Amino acid sequence: MIDELLLRYRDYLDSLGYIINVEDIEDGRRVLFDTSSGSPVSVRLDVSGENLENHSLWIYIRTTSWMFNGDRSDLHELISSIFAIVLKGLKDISVSIHDVEHPVETFEGEVYARVLTFERDNLIDFQSNEENDYKVVDILHGVWIASIIMDNVLKLASGNLSIDRHESEEWLNKLASYLGEDIDEFLFYKRTEPDWSWCKSVTSEVSIFAIEEEMIQFFKSNLLKSKFDVIKGLNREIIKNKDYYNSFSYSRLELGKDILKLLEGRSNEDIPYLVIENGFFIFGKSHFIFLKDDCREINTNDELGIVKDNYKDLWPILFPNIQFFWNDKLDGGRFEELTRDLLIEEDGISRVRIVSSGNDPDGGRDLEAEMFIINTQDVEVLGPYRRIKVLVQCKAYKKSVNKGNVTDIRDTIENHNAHGYFLIVSSNLTTQLYNHLSLMREKGHYWIDWWTRKEIEDRLMKKLHLVEKYKDIITYSVN
């Protein structure tokens, strides 16, 4: 892809002023796209695999001490926020923002560097084709625009660090009191030429930026005009973007609104917002705030299920009224094949193998999946996407699956030298098994997830061709 991509778009990228370099990495090559020499933002395309067929795209953000003085956490947060806002507002590309810890010593709240990833647009592990190549170049165009904002509008290159809490102590005290936190636990920095400041509550996972009103207005006028379909859920607001959904928590939104009211002394009922994968931005008059929140598909699907249960009369209007019918007796082997076909089409999963034979004893695994997770350790060398092996166990049961129906999960993972466990059932989980899996996931020693009939049907809703393939175990009707 490297030669083809550069050949096809070299003139265009040159016209934008991109500096392009290629370097060797452990199992392939890396293309670095920089908008200027010494830019703190680098778009990186890693190409790996036996035939250099596997590609992944990410953005690395880190300033240098000889360009900016003091701790630079504020810069890394502001720059990454600008790029996330521009990519979503201008290109409808939804990223995730990840902190990179200091490789030697870590201070609470310090942002040594930041990484933007593209799992929503399936650019973790992709093949070169016209559609994906265009998407990469479209992102590069968005990065170029964001760089202009960063360099020219905010004049970051001339900014100086000032840590003068005295002049901001009044509103910091108000904010700490409102959040119920100690003011000394807040991170606060102010820069000049131009004047802007940053405050972060590590406990509440809220970052506040005070910048020139003209900049906020620029965001509102040029990047927040996209019209999205909105569904008001019970706990979360759901936004439809292109062919996918995001959502954010009402309680987090109210927290952001209250902070804006505290800072700007006015009530804003209609607050502009912009949602990415792991949080959302809200915009006031001279402040914008980032609130961390899991806005990905998993929470959105849960909220859609609540909407479906509570607003059955409206559901046919919002979505096709598709009803699924499962056979009373399911063939275990066919259910495994259906599971495999569903997993193959999941973002972030690169390979799925069937390792058991239908209804034979499986030792706790029916399938093995290779998937990607985000890991920012040694990110400059290894990149943010790490391939792991996950064991998949399928249960084609009519009744709910309980804890006694699954093999000891920890032993199974260890015995097969895996990193995670994925349980997929054709029915539901008992409360005991649900709590057991949830606790294992919270501990974080292994990657843990599960699908019940609901999650399977949610995916089949968008993949009806698979239902046609597996008519012997599931059918559907459209009303």
Automatic annotation (TrEMBL):
Is Hydrolase found in the keyword set? yes
GO molecular function list: endonuclease activity
Domain of life of the organism encoding this protein: Bacteria
For the Restriction endonuclease type IV Mrr domain, which residue ranges apply?
A: 328-432
Question: What InterPro entries is this protein classified in?
Answer: Restrct_endonuc-II-like, Restrct_endonuc_IV_Mrr, tRNA_endonuc-like_dom_sf
What keywords is this UniProt entry annotated with?
Answer: Endonuclease, Hydrolase, Nuclease
| Matches recorded under Pfam families | Mrr_cat
Any idea what this protein is called?
A: Restriction endonuclease
